Amino acid sequence: MTGPRSTPPDSAYPVPFAVERDSGPRRYVITNRGQERLEGITMHLLGAGVMPASVPAALEPGEGLEVFISARDLARSTVLVVRWFRPNGDEYLWRMSF
To answer: Which pTM was predicted?
Structure first.
């Protein structure tokens, strides 16, 4: 058991991304719909899918990243994990299914 917290926990933090899927089965655009700059954004695939490697990115509010993912039966075989940092340095992970 851990000791008492010195500060109260933050309120809920909604995932700041929207995903455009209507561009086709292989192309996705992940847009920062939040109100703050996000840094160190990386994407990792779990499963049978493949995508081009990319360097960590930063997104201002309203900006988007394009990602191309290929897989046989993508919805059943692959999960995308998006990792990012908020301006205060907190790290977040978001698991996205297709």
So the answer is: 0.83
Asked whether residue 1 carries a pLDDT value surpassing 80, the answer given is no
Q: Is the pLDDT of residue 23 over 80?
A: no
47 Rama class: left (phi>0) / alpha (psi -120 to 50) / beta: left
CA 11 to the chain's CA centroid: 20
92: its two tokens: 């977040």
Q: Is residue 51 part of a domain?
A: yes
- Give the whole-angstrom CA distance, residue 41 versus residue 82: 7
pLDDT at 39 over 80: yes
Residue identified by tokens 């990012």 is 84
Helix (H) or strand (E) holding 30: strand 27-32
Residue 58 lies in a domain: yes
